[in-house]
Design a protein that fits this description.
The protein is α/β, with parallel strands linked by helices. The chain contains 11 helices and 13 strands. Helices cover 44% and strands 18% of the residues. Helix 2 links the parallel strand 2 and strand 3. The structure holds nicotinamide-adenine-dinucleotide (NAD). Nicotinamide-adenine-dinucleotide binds next to helix 1, strand 2, helix 5 and strand 5.
Amino acid sequence: MNIFVTGAAGFIGSHLVENLIARGDNIIALDNMNNYYDPAIKRKNIASARRSSRLSFIEGDILDVNLLEKIFSSTPIYVIVHLAARAGVRPSIKEPLLYQKVNCIGTLNLLELARKHHIKRFVLASSSSVYGNVKEVPFKETANIDRPVSPYASTKRTCELYCNIYHKLYGISTTALRFFTVYGPRQRPDMAIHKFTSLIDQGIPIPFYGDGSSRRDYTYYTDIIKGLTAAIDRDLGFEIINLGESQTTSLKQLVGIIEENLNKKAILQKLPFQPGDVEITYADVSKAQRLLDYNPSTDIKWGIKKFVEWHLSMKSS
Ligand code: NAD
């Protein structure tokens, strides 16, 4: 099956393409290698997949409509997996226009291509951040989420709404997956687990926001890839589905687990709770279980152990 994957050199994208290649799919992969974090990391992420004859990698932008049109006119594509985005809550507060352009216009460009080229299925990376400060936990897909607390969250919600529109108008099967803080080898360096691990390892203070009681549902990347792959394989009409681990860890506990695995003490730089951040994320995954046979199974302690092992192996490579 020919699958078009955007954001393929990123953390989640690079793991996904490796898995799809391994099961025999042909991948047309797009990434603009922007410098949100070091593009050399992205080149390394995608290096092994690029050695496969099943992968055709294009360095380009989802905002470049001519390029996209050329790709779709020359290759029959069955599914679009749209992972490319400006990610990150706090940077979106600084650059809301950029987030709006890349995330919303970029998604619309791809949905337009799906319409013109009669693409059967479209899978979107959405985010748990759309829940904002919803009080009822665990978060259900049916929760009222019209109070986002960051531009990033609002762009992801907008993309979900466009998916619904393109399903209703043109019958494209569109599935929006709400990822809950994904971690594991290759995690973006700006994300807490990665940032804390590097800083603690180097004896540099870590920014510690609030009193450490905020909680996150951290999801190991292998669980996300299973859920994502199941969504790639199914026509579900239009659905929004949580992909989390359905267990929460406080910031304080998280730091403790990283300390234990590094065998080093963290130096905390205590800072006030950040605008745009939320108190808790916690996924109800019963819909994913029902529609995607999704059964997340990674304990945070085991996952962090694996992450720290990877971090240490990168240092010595
Ligand atoms: P990432 O930044 O590692 O990957 C995104 C990739 O998209 C990058 O390689 C980047 O170069 C590429 N990209 C960005 N703008 C582009 C453009 N205009 N054209 C082409 N390529 C572009 O991020 P990730 O953590 O792998 O996240 C993947 C997706 O999942 C994103 O949509 C993100 O919003 C979403 N998500 C991630 C998490 C998480 O915890 N990592 C949580 C919720 C949602």
